[in-house]
Design a protein that fits this description.
The chain is of the alpha+beta class. Helices cover about 20% and strands about 40% of the residues.
């Protein structure tokens, strides 16, 4: 992996997140979990390059994000779409997702990513807050929450970006 500046991404963050999906991973060498994400953003806040991720509280990864200061967001080629689909549909409480998908964990800068990642963004948590439906201006947003299980938004300072 070669370190690059976030501004050197060859693909738009919107394309990477919304179209390609990614994995958010938190934990350490002893225990970690990963999950598929297709919502999120990359930008700037409080004078820092930042990534915004959204995780529902019932997801196993939520426990790891809550405990750890560092999380990663990693992106993959289309040949791994089935692996990403599995990571979004199965719980790490029940299976070892990395093993099931043939992903090789790599430990970098206090976080966990995978050898197969085309890009990895390493982030340090700066803020976290549950989405409050009273703030939804567009009423169609509520259709994403039939169980009232609102995501928690995490804002992470981008510490490093790696390209395969």
């Amino acid at each position: 992996m070669k370190e690059i500046n976030i501004r050197e991404l060859e693909k738009s963050p919107v394309e990477l997140i919304a179209d390609g999906w990614g994995l958010v991973t938190a934990g350490n060498a002893e225990k970690f979990n990963t999950m598929t994400v297709s919502w999120g953003a990359v930008g700037e806040i409080w004078g820092k390059d930042a990534a915004f991720i959204f995780i529902r509280p019932q997801r196993y990864t939520f426990e790891f994000i809550e405990k750890e200061d560092i999380f990663t967001i990693s992106f993959y080629g289309s040949e791994l779409k089935d692996a990403l689909r599995l990571c979004g549909s199965k719980s790490g409480r029940d299976i070892d997702k990395a093993e099931a998908c043939g992903l090789t964990p790599v430990f970098v800068d206090g976080g966990v990513t995978f050898e197969q990642a085309e890009y990895t963004i390493v982030c340090r948590k700066m803020a976290g807050q549950f989405l409050d439906p009273s703030g939804f201006i567009d009423p169609s947003i509520e259709s994403n929450y039939s169980k009232k299980d609102y995501h928690k938004m995490y804002i992470g300072e981008i510490l490093k970006v790696y390209k395969k």
